[in-house]
Amino acid sequence: ISSDLTQCYDDEETPPPDPKTLCPYCDTPLPAKPTHILKKLLDRTYFQSCSNPRPGNRLGRKAPSAIFGVVCQRHIFESNVLPQAKERGWPTQINWATLKDRVLHMERELAKILADPGDPVVYRGDGKEDNDAKEQQGSKPERSDGPRMRCLFWDDLVKRVKTQGSKGLRNITSQYYNFHKMQPGYYGELGLVIIQRALCGMFPLEDIDPGLVKPLTPMEFIQSIFVPEVGMRLVMADFGLNVNNWSDKEQAVEVLRDSASYGVAMFPYEESTGK
After folding, report:
1. How many angstroms separate the CA atoms of 217 and 224, rounded?
2. 36/44 Cα distance (integer angstroms)
3. If 188 and its partner were Cys, which of 26, 159, 230, 263 is the partner (CB 3.0–4.6 Å)?
4. Is 199 exposed, middle or buried (0-12, 13-18, 19+ CB in 10 A)?
5. pLDDT (0 to 100) of residue 233
6. pLDDT of the residue at 133
7. Is 89 left (phi over 0), alpha (psi -120 to 50) or beta?
8. With contact defined as beta carbons under 8 Å apart, do 53 and 28 qualify?
């Protein structure tokens, strides 16, 4: 392939590309402005590979695919996905130093969500009305307008409990652990770690009344309700959306879900912390 490329350049009297701009392993162009993550990967694999000059790329190197594969995946991501992310308004840089404080400033609103009993049907876990339940509820109306039910993620859980009942409860809780529901959108893995640490500092698991978060455990509530709630609020602040507008919330959640894979690739926790 490299020989064919060289012949093509010769036929068209076009100078071949500068080898410094090519991937040393697959010979395809590197992004014009590689991120620090790609630079670090190139440096790391350099010492795990050996020189392998070839036509069209005198700086080519050779290594097992298990070693250089991550480099090629990364530069393809930065060349193809990153420009698309920019077009959609997803950030390529985040001020991590201020993220914890941004989350801490949400404590009052999050505490209201946690303290509000919400819709009582979710705590029975059967999704059905019966005489015993009615007697236990007395004449109290369902809290459909409180902070808990205004939380889009809890509202979704309630709807699923009412529809699927206790038999589907295990599937419901496991679903909340899937990738997209646990990621804070384009804030990625690093953002997830910072957000979860801040949340657990504000709401220690041992201090959360299990009865208030049923059918979830306190940790599941933090991860599947509070983490996406915080992610949604961060996105809304970034995009200038109204946190009290349900339509704006849905728009933010769409961004949250669409940008989850991008966030994990763009802001991985291990690379960002140097581990």
Report:
1. 10
2. 12
3. 263
4. buried
5. 97
6. 40
7. left
8. no
For the chain, list residues with pLDDT below 50. Answer: 1-3, 124-143, 176-177, 271-272, 274-275
pLDDT of residue 272: 47
Residue listed under structure tokens 């910072």? 194
The DSSP letter of residue 57 is: B
pLDDT digit string, tens, across residues 139-174: 344 445 788 888 999 888 888 777 776 556 556 555
The pLDDT assigned to 169 comes to: 56
Residue 48: the pLDDT is 95
Q: How far apart are CA 260 and CA 179, in angstroms?
A: 8
Cβ distance 118 to 158 under 8 Å?
yes
3-state secondary structure at position 105: coil
**Residue in the block written with tokens 């299990």:** 210
Q: What is the pLDDT of residue 167?
A: 55
Q: What is the C-alpha separation between 109 and 236, in angstroms, rounded?
A: 15
Q: Which pLDDT does position 158 carry in this prediction?
A: 81
Q: What is the pLDDT of residue 138?
A: 41
Q: Which long-range contacts (CB under 8 A, 24 or more apart) does 28-35 make?
A: 28/72, 28/75, 28/76, 29/79, 30/75, 30/79, 31/75, 31/78, 31/79, 31/82, 34/75, 34/78, 35/78, 35/92, 35/266
Query: In what helix (H) or strand (E) does residue 62 lie, and over which residues does it extend?
Result: strand 61-62
Q: Which helix (H) or strand (E) holds 117?
A: none
Gap between the Cα atoms of 82 and 79, Å rounded: 6
Element (H, E) at 61: strand 61-62
Q: At 14, is the secondary structure helix, strand, or coil?
A: coil
Alpha-carbon gap, residue 206 to 204, rounded angstroms: 6
Interatomic CA distance for residues 271 and 262, integer angstroms: 15
What local confidence, expressed as pLDDT, does residue 130 receive? 41
